Amino acid sequence: GRLVDRYGVGLVLIAGGLIIIAGLLGWGYSPIWAALLLSVFLTGMGSGLLDTTANIYAARHFSARLTNWLHASYGLGAVVGPLLTTAVISWGRGWRLAYLMGALLQVVIWLLYLAVRQDVSMRGMTVEERPENSIPLRSVLKSPLVWLGMFYFFMYGGLEHGAGQWSFPLFTEGRGVALEPAGTWVSIYWGSLTVGRVVLGQVTAWLGSQRLLRLSHLLALLGAILLSIPSIPVLGFAGLALIGFAVAPIFPTLIQLTPQRVGRKAAATAVGFQVGVTSLGIALLPGLAGILIDRISLEVVGPFL
To answer: Looking at residues 128-155, what average pLDDT do you find?
Structure first.
């Protein structure tokens, strides 16, 4: 967020794109383990820059509908990417070629960043949003709304990825479901995130962001309750799909509402923290669920969610 305030959206996108390209090339050519680890770090850092910057731009300029569609396109890429990687490996070309192809795609995207960097950096900025008018980091962190938002995004990251990570062992090891249908329903869960952002993003036009968020929370709770019923497998499947569909608009809609909640001067920094703690929730909360599963049983997944 501070980098965007200081250098603008365009330059941060260009820098993030270069870092990702370097990381992906490292995946393709690293001769030793240490170099591969560095490549992983670069890819993650570049992705973090792009993710945060895109969300800051969306929060400033997009409606809730467009922000949801932006995240739906991310979900579509998350579905297509592994399929392309699997195809490359199945052709006998090796996994490194898949990352080199990713680097080539990133070069194309980076050239697009170059083409639009001046346009996106200052387009539509209010006086409050201009870099010279941003407020200090310390002042942003004094706001209770910023900390409340960070806590919520932390929990959201754990919910979204916890459901995706633990539902498969819940179905297969905990409930004796065959591998293929269990895997299919996990794929449906991730697919429902994309579909939900397309469909529910459109709903915001007449329902409104706040009502949509309330509806999403209620439906996600219902999905978690259904997932907690072990005796009827179809209810668990339906519950998992419902969770994915219900939580789909929460992240992008809250990102879009950030300037309204914390003020336009603090929005870029707040979005940066929100995206960061979401990743922290993804890293930590599924692990906490794993500890509970180890001590109790896999059936703790539904109540945990």
So the answer is: 76
Residue 238 to residue 235: CA distance in whole angstroms: 5
pTM of the model: 0.79
Average pLDDT over residues 299-305: 91
Q: Which fold has domain 138-304?
A: Growth Hormone; Chain: A; (1.20.1250)
pLDDT given at position 99? 85
Question: DSSP state, 251?
Answer: H
SS3 63: coil
Query: DSSP letter at 124?
Result: T
3-state SS class at 159? helix
Quick: pLDDT tens for 94-112. Answer: 788 888 888 898 899 888 8
- Structural domain boundaries in the chain: 2-118, 138-304
Instruction: Give ∠ CA 100-101-106 in degrees, rounded to 5.
Output: 95
**Pick from 76, 78, 72, 68: nearest CA to 47:** 78
